[in-house]
Design goal:
This protein has two helices and three strands; from the N terminus they run βαββα. With 59 residues, the chain is α+β, with helices and mostly antiparallel strands. The chain has a domain of 37 residues. The protein is rod-shaped. This is Ribosome biogenesis protein Nop10.
Length: 59
């Protein structure tokens, strides 16, 4: 799942601070806008079964 909020991919070079937008390109410099945050979890978590079992055991 991706966030709707994007940040300019070249903000470190072209801007003083991050430029956030909802479009696919930066409104100030025209560079591509990328997803502003990584995914909170991986749906193919290979250790998820063990992590959940440990959580249930420690309750």
């Amino acid at each position: 799942m991706k966030s709707d909020i994007r940040v300019c991919s070249a903000w470190r070079d072209a801007h003083d601070r991050p430029v956030y937008t909802l479009s696919t390109d930066c409104p100030e410099c025209g560079a591509d806008a990328v997803n502003s945050a990584p995914a909170p979890f991986d749906p193919e978590d290979s250790y998820g079964e063990y992590r959940r079992a440990l959580k249930r055991r420690n309750r």
